[in-house]
Amino acid sequence: MIQLFIPLNFLGFIYREIREALINIERLFGLLEAPVKVVDVETAPALRISGGAVRFDKVSHAYTAERPILEDVSFTIPAGQTLAVVGPSGAGKSTLARLLFRFYDVSSGSISIDEQDIRSVSQHSLRQAIGVVPQDTVLFNDSIGYNIAYGKPGASDEEIWNALRMAQLEDFVAQLPEGLNTQVGERGLKLSGGEKQRIAIARVLLKDPQLLILDEATSSLDTHSERRILDSLNLVAQRRTTLAIAHRLSTIIHAEQILVLDQGRVVEQGNHQQLLAAGGAYAHLWAEQLRNSEGESDV
Ligand code: ATP
């Protein structure tokens, strides 16, 4: 019995640890792809955030030795600014986000935040400093209040309502019969993709991190929901250093920088106007999206 109990208990521990660490990033990082555990250097100090400037310096990455995914990627996101990454499926966009969160260590090159190599600081402090709005948020089978306060354990109801208001969920929750105590998840209220994403936004607003990873997901949303999500995302990205993985070009027009990634390499970099004027890969992507979204009012 004891023999059986120990492994089960251990598995439970692993499960809880993964759940705690990854609950709001599971889709971004792929919960089922068991990560190679990154290790803190002994007595690693906490990350000290001044403005939250991010620097990728000649970053290359391969999940398996025979297949390089990112090659020699360099960019800087000045404190408080947004860098949007676009490119075809499989180009390596999410990999950039996984590396910034230090889900994996880079194969070569370095990533730093405010001049501190992220391998030299504690993982806990790094992840505390970064908020993630994933494509698909998984909720706890618990109250809606709990699901939002997850961003900041011990948050007051007032703080939760503030976050809900900024995430444009205040009216929605206010009209639920049990308000913040309404149960959500498999056994409770089912939320739409857009509502779930706004819960993720509310969590991040409550956590109030200096850095943000946005994995934009708008494909399954109608235009009205998309507009609301974009408004909330713009709000949450304000004054935070943001790495946005963008699938729809309409959402990144205002990003200070846009990085076009193709087969793991940076093929273009600039802002929207510069890249359109350059008439290269971005301009082609843009023209293609315009064609695909003909008739939609927001593009
Ligand atoms: P999409 O727009 O479709 O989300 P992406 O540009 O975000 O794509 P990534 O998720 O970064 O692409 O994946 C880049 C490449 O790395 C893909 O070919 C993918 O199959 C591969 N890859 C991703 N995660 C792993 C992993 N854990 N192990 C091995 N290969 C992986």
Automatic annotation (TrEMBL):
Membrane topology: Multi-pass membrane protein
Compartments in which it is found: Cell membrane
Domain of life of the organism encoding this protein: Bacteria
Span of domain ABC transporter: 54-288
A single MF term (Gene Ontology): ABC-type transporter activity
Annotated TM spans: 1-15
Keywords, in A-Z order: ATP-binding, Membrane, Nucleotide-binding, Transmembrane, Transmembrane helix, Transport
GO cellular component terms given for this protein: plasma membrane
Name of this protein: ATP-binding cassette, subfamily B
Species whose genome carries this gene: Halopseudomonas litoralis
Residues of the full protein shown: 300 to 598 of 598
